[in-house]
Design brief:
The complex is a heterodimer. By secondary structure, chain A is mostly beta strands. Chain A has one helix spanning 2-19, and strands spanning 31-37, 44-53, 64-71, 79-87, 90-97, 101-110, 116-126. In chain A, a hairpin with a 5-residue loop joins β6 and β7. By secondary structure, chain B is mainly alpha-helical. In chain B, the strands form three sheets. A two-stranded antiparallel sheet of chain B has the order 1-4. Chain B has a two-stranded antiparallel sheet with strand order 2-3. Chain B has a two-stranded antiparallel sheet with strand order 5-6. Chain B starts with a helix and ends in an 11-residue tail after the last helix. Classes of the chains: A mainly beta, B mainly alpha.
């Protein structure tokens, strides 16, 4: 019985492992520049400005931009924000940091041509109030 | 050996049958029947082993983002939280369902260990060193945010258990090496359940002592004729941690494996209810453990357990940033490990030495005790455990209660990544846990219970040590526990502020 359990477990692990792939951006060379207000960011609502540029440095317009903020510690509920375009290539919104510490923001921007831009931006040291 | 009157009284208390309640988990319908089944432990270990292997797979091949990785989430939020809560509400059930023992048992079918654990290491020092090492690595490498290293830690655990118990007989890994096991042993002194004999009178008449020796095959047609009893194969092992049930006291070193239950030919071992912590003040020799109040390694273990709880929580709040930066500015250091090493040395060695030594000196002077200071420290070390356990409960309980539902979206996400389709539905990231406003009073409750427990155990020890001047003997320890309690409350009121980016 124990032998079967071990082999079953190893098989499960391999299936799970084989299926997991790191997500890759399909917009190479594009830049996502994030600005937070206040700076340094604090617990609570923070204003977010995201500037998207393509590989030639031109603003990426009319993207559907969503942010997901996570603490680097497991077990914390993420915060989400949908950004609105305020200028060509500049997107604004509000993101709630629920706790002090180190955060990272996952940027997902769906471009008008169907491609998706994924970026991870570290936000260290969100200050507790 | 001179045995004092108080020790004789304590021995009578240990063996008095009326100290037990009549509640026995093994007599509860269904649960009792399941646990009495010889393969119940394997049945509990198997799902935990499968889960561990899924975690290892996700640690190495899943997303390297802790909040989205099952290894990081289940290890640092669910496992830690459930361990302390289950110990509080029941007993050492994690060791009972320990997955590390399953590969070891499998390996032992082909590979019999030949060596005895080295005599010089038959103490808690190896486990203390590993306990501190794990705490240090947790802080230095930010393990809470690092799925890959969390996976390596789990793999390392499996490998260590396999290697140690493949080389050395009995449960050497559990008794002398495993830091999680030591944590569980100490915590389960505060548990409401204990594996214990039902009727000491039955044990007094027992001639085989199978609970410690193991049960051997009957000399029938299945076994070679002409063999003496001691040459027959063991068909049910006895306690591998050297706990002889009639003389066993408390849950120290007990993994709840229930080997003694299965081995006892008189069905005289149960899982009995008791008052949590009631046996902590008991003095005198304990089977398999020795005389706790004369073992400095046990004192060190209790100290690391308690002050380590405070340090582990302190390292997660804002003031530790300021402290580390102040030390960095003062010394010119631009790497974290020496600063962290200094912090550990102060918190786990210097501070306890001053506080415990100071309390013992005052007790010695105030209560007129003739024992050396170190002997007094050794006596009172046990009374740190309730408060230490309260701090672990408050800290791990915070993470667990505020984030226990996050396992649902992370599992959904893992299934989607593994199979390419949302097999368990789209991740429901809105799930979290209880709000902090509800969890904080629970933290205070855990700390308060810990303080009360330490006061009660400390008082009992002081009464035994100085029957006529109990107040004078207890006062410094009572004040010390109160100070540690206030420090713990202060830590819990600080906003969590993990220092993952200190000094870059």
């Amino acid at each position: 019985l124990q032998r079967h359990v071990i082999w079953l477990a190893i098989g499960l692990m391999l299936v799970l492992g084989a299926g997991c792939r790191p997500s890759a951006s399909d917009v190479p060379g594009a830049e996502a520049d994030l600005t937070l207000q206040p700076d340094p960011p604090t617990v609570g609502d923070n204003q977010v400005i995201l500037a998207l540029t393509d590989e030639a440095g031109a603003p990426i317009e009319n993207a559907d931009v969503r942010l997901e903020g996570n603490m680097n510690h497991a077990g914390m509920k993420p915060s989400f924000a949908d950004l609105q375009e305020v200028e060509p290539g500049r997107y604004a919104g509000t993101l709630d940091f629920t706790m002090g510490g180190d955060w990272f923001i996952l940027v997902t921007a769906k471009l008008p041509d169907g491609r998706t831009l994924d970026r991870k931006i570290d936000v260290p040291g969100v200050e507790a109030k | 050996v001179i045995v004092s009157a108080t020790e004789r009284r304590a021995a009578r208390r240990r063996t008095a049958p009326d100290r037990r309640t009549s509640f026995d988990v093994l007599k509860v319908p269904l649960i009792g029947r399941f646990l009495r089944w010889r393969y119940s432990r394997i049945a509990l270990q198997t799902p935990v082993l499968l889960l561990s292997l899924v975690m290892i797979g996700h640690a190495f091949w899943g997303p390297q983002l802790a909040p989205k990785n099952l290894a990081a989430l289940l290890t640092w939020v669910h496992f830690r939280g459930l361990v302390v809560l289950v110990i509080l509400l029941a007993g050492n059930l994690f060791c009972m369902a320990c997955p590390f023992m399953l590969p070891r048992d499998l390996a032992r079918r082909w590979f019999s260990p030949r060596w005895e654990w080295p005599r010089r290491l038959r103490n808690k020092w190896p486990a203390i060193a590993l306990f501190v090492l794990v705490l240090f690595a947790y802080e230095l490498f930010d393990l809470w945010s690092n799925p890959w290293w969390t996976g390596m830690l789990i793999v390392g655990y499996f490998a260590a258990a396999l290697v140690v118990d493949s080389l050395f007989r009995r449960a050497s890994f559990c008794k002398y090496v495993c830091p999680v096991g030591q944590f569980n042993f100490l915590g389960s002194t505060l548990s409401p359940l204990e594996v214990a004999v039902r009727d000491p009178g039955v044990c007094a008449d027992c001639e085989t002592k199978d609970c410690i020796r193991g049960r051997r095959a009957e000399n029938d047609a299945d076994t070679p004729a002409g063999k003496s009893k001691s040459q027959l194969p063991i068909i049910q092992r006895g306690c591998e941690l050297a706990l002889f049930q009639p003389r066993k006291v408390d849950n120290l070193d007990c993994t709840f494996c229930l080997d003694c239950v299965y081995a006892c030919p008189h069905d005289n071992v149960g899982i009995l209810a008791r008052l949590p912590g009631e046996q902590l003040p008991v003095s005198g020799p304990r089977s398999g453990v020795g005389t706790v109040e004369r073992r400095f390694d046990m004192t060190a273990l209790a100290t690391v357990f308690t002050f380590g709880a405070l340090l582990n929580a302190f390292a997660m709040i804002s003031p530790v940033y300021a402290l580390e930066r102040w030390v960095a500015d003062l010394t010119g250091l631009n790497v974290e490990w020496p600063i962290l090493l200094g912090l550990f040395a102060v918190a786990l060695v210097l501070e306890p030495a001053i506080l415990l030594g100071g309390a013992a000196v005052i007790t010695r002077w105030g209560a007129g005790v003739r024992e050396p200071v170190l002997a007094i420290v050794n006596r009172f070390a046990r009374s740190l455990l309730p408060l230490g356990f309260g701090v672990w409960l408050a800290h791990y309980g915070f993470h667990f209660f505020t984030g226990f539902l996050t396992v649902i979206p992370v599992t959904q996400s893992a299934a989607e990544n593994a199979f390419g389709i949302p097999l368990l539905g789209e991740p429901w990231w809105a799930l979290g846990g209880l709000p902090e406003s509800i969890v904080f009073p629970m933290e205070l409750g855990f700390l308060g219970l810990g303080l009360l427990g330490s006061w009660m155990v400390g008082w009992a020890i002081a009464r035994e040590l100085a029957p006529r001047r109990t107040w004078a003997g207890f006062a410094p320890w009572g004040v010390l526990y109160l100070v540690l309690f206030i420090v713990a409350v202060w830590i819990m009121t600080q906003p969590m502020d993990m220092r993952g980016t200190f000094l870059g």
